[in-house]
Amino acid sequence: MHIETDKKAEPKLILRGVQRRTGTDNYETTVLLFEGKGDYLQGYVVVNGQKRDVIAHINDCKADSEVSKVKSGFLKLSQREGNGNNISWHEVGYGHAMNNRKDGKQVFYDTVLFNVDGETLNARITKHVTSEMHAKLGFTSLRIERPKTEKLDKTEQAEKLTLKKPAAYKPSRPIARKTA
User: Fold this and answer.
1) For residues 8 and 95, what is the distance between their CA atoms, to the nearest angstrom?
2) Terminus-to-terminus CA distance in the chain, angstroms?
3) How are beta strands 69-71 and 62-64 bridged, if at all?
4) Rg for the chain (alpha carbons), in Å?
């Protein structure tokens, strides 16, 4: 006897952004977007400490006939407002794939920058992003693997952070002491 389980496939995480909390070594998730059933992503963004459920509509690449150049795609973030029959969608921000940098540093074609209410959030693509989705997100080149960083274990970190005690003070000549 064969029993089928009715498991829903978990949605694939496409973009995840984290930000270090000021003054700590703790991180908080600022962008979490999952693949939707159409040309959109769904999830949330955190802006000014407030979590907002959003839909990210994927706008495909378009050819600009005046410049004869292809404009890369972008994401339009919308938030649902209202309840019941009075539901409307309000645009709260947008996101663009990072295809170049003004500071001359290397581009890895894995980061999307979002502007939500004047705040900039960044998110990186995950392993679930197919080459088709990568292109739809607006990247103009294939993803480049980031160099691996050597992570130190906690004891090594503690050793590096421990301040060395200064050597005991030794005068260059003996100190004359007065005797009474």
Assistant:
1) 29
2) 106
3) antiparallel
4) 26
Burial call 73-98: b when 16+ CB within 10 Å, e when fewer: bbbbbbbeeeeeeeeeeeebbbbbbb
Residuewise pLDDT in 10s, the chain (180 residues): 444 444 567 899 999 999 988 888 889 999 999 999 888 999 999 998 899 999 999 987 665 566 556 667 899 999 999 888 888 989 999 999 999 999 999 999 999 999 999 999 999 999 999 999 999 999 999 999 999 876 655 555 555 544 444 444 444 555 555 555
What is the rounded CA–CA span in Å between residue 12 and residue 43? 11
- Angle subtended at Cα 45 by Cα 39 and Cα 51, rounded to the nearest 5 degrees: 135
* Class of residue 142 by CB neighbours under 10 A (exposed 0-12, middle 13-18, buried 19+): exposed
Two tokens at 137? 């997100």
How far, in Å, are 55, 57, 108, 115 from residue 61 at the CA level? Answer: 19, 13, 19, 19
* Structural contact between residues 25 and 18, judged by C-beta atoms closer than 8 angstroms: no
